[in-house]
Amino acid sequence: MNRRMSSRTVSLTSTFLLLAAGGLAACDSDEYVDEGFYCADADGTIVDEDLCDDDGGGGGGGGFFIWHSSGYRSGYPVGSKLPAGGTKFAYNDAASRSKFGLPSSGKISNGTVKTSVVGKGGSGSSSGG
Predict the structure, then answer these.
(1) What share of the chain in percent tops pLDDT 90?
(2) Distance CA 121, CA 21 (A)
């Protein structure tokens, strides 16, 4: 004995599939990026990562920032200038650190790459002081 699907069942199934497809499309519209992080001065010249350690061990005080960009790769040496297009925040800005999935305090190794940062990247702007 064959059972035929009622038009209501077909309609509900179609509606569900459309909603599911829309939900997946919304997820795909989020920008997932890998961000590279470096300790650098205000001009983007990489400095020793200990200067961005705010746990009291070697923090450099003002003038040092955590720079980040989806275009930064690991391996830039201390003393080199970061490529244009990155953004920065104060090394001791716990809120900004947390926003990017970094520890809220302590040292962040130069060249650290955080994967799947959602829509948080950008370029050409800075925050913190």
Answers:
(1) 48
(2) 26
